[in-house]
Design a protein that fits this description.
BirA Bifunctional Protein, domain 2; 3 domains; globular
């Protein structure tokens, strides 16, 4: 392990105190100049190390990078896990790995995405340092029915994991958005590939992007009205690595049928659109109606003003007014 990596680990393990250069030098068995050089290198790489006169060095508690060494429990031989400081898209990276032979349960984690993806070809804002981006590869049994409800179940598992680590109550907006009372805090993207020989689903990549902290300077103008972070900088404790591990382990079991009923029931309980009036947009077509149900296959059942029911499998849903998990979304 390089000296800079040892210095970074020491600082990560002592976030609540300053470490002098001499203290780290003595502990690591290197010179004080070597520690100083390592700190300078880390700072140039973007690590926010604070140098406090006559006290030493310290990391802010909000600096919470993914650490590959943390995931020994999750790194099983049959399902490797890749950790990146930055990647274009965790979903795209994992799809490339799947084409190269990656196995069921393989995962890609990142601190930053340069080209994060959302539903319907939209981009997903994925800033460095403040978010977590996780994708897991699933290879279903040929008899297993993979559909829209896979996204619903993935949303519930993500909400459970986030609340375990102190997030406020989380609701879901059909089909893939996670909300708190302050706005959208996470999004789910599931992508499947089809075996052209038998027409069956060959692989499923389940991705989640999470806003743990507000980005420096706030969210971009085009999403600032509805985007939110789970935690404020003043009330943040490092959780990224254990949270990522829990998400990977939960998603590896996503296609287990015996939990389907419980997950879909919980999705409905967490729904912020059931019983509400919404605007559903499908290309140039727009429908205003009241959400009457969410079917087991994931379809949204919408009752129009004329009493007719519409079963929607793909649409952009907007809900106006205060509904407990944000407004004007």
């Amino acid at each position: 392990m390089k000296t800079k990596d040892k210095v970074l680990r020491a600082l990560l393990n002592h976030r609540e105190e300053e470490l002098s250069g001499q203290t780290m030098a003595d502990h690591l068995g290197v010179s004080r100049n070597a520690v100083w050089a390592a700190v300078k290198t880390l700072q140039k790489e973007g690590v926010p190390i604070r140098a406090l006169p006559n006290k030493g060095y310290r990391l802010p508690t909000t600096y919470d990078p993914l650490q590959a060494s943390y995931f020994k429990k999750t790194l099983v031989e049959s399902a490797p896990l890749w950790v990146y400081p930055t990647v274009d898209s965790t979903n795209d990276q994992l799809k490339n790995l799947a084409r190269a032979g990656a196995l069921h349960g393989s995962a890609v984690l990142a601190d930053h995405q340069s080209a994060g993806k959302g539903r319907m070809g939209r981009s997903f804002y994925s800033p460095a340092l403040t978010g977590l981006y996780v994708s897991v590869l699933l290879k279903p049994d040929p008899s297993f029915q993979v559909g829209l409800n896979t996204t619903l179940k993935a949303a519930v598992l993500a909400a459970r994991c986030l609340e375990k680590y102190g997030a406020p109550p989380i609701g879901v907006k059909w089909v893939n958005d996670l909300y708190t009372s302050h706005g959208k805090v996470a999004g789910i993207l599931t992508e499947a590939t089809i075996n052209m020989e038998n027409g069956m689903v060959d692989t499923v990549v389940v991705g989640v992007g999470i806003n743990l902290l507000p980005p420096a300077g706030g969210f971009p103008e085009d999403i600032a009205s509805h985007a939110a972070a789970l935690f404020s900088p003043d009330h943040y404790q490092p959780i990224k690595n254990p949270l990522a591990q829990d998400l990977v382990e939960a998603y590896r079991e996503l296609l287990t049928e015996d939990q389907d009923h419980a997950l879909l029931s919980e999705y409905r309980e967490r729904s912020v659109v059931l019983g509400k009036e919404v605007l559903a947009t499908m290309g140039d077509r727009k429908i205003v109606g009241t959400v009457k149900a969410i079917r087991d296959d994931g379809a949204l059942v919408l009752e129009r003003a004329d009493g007719q029911l519409e079963n929607l499998m793909s649409a952009e849903v907007s809900l106006r007014g205060d509904f407990g998990f944000g407004s004007n979304r």
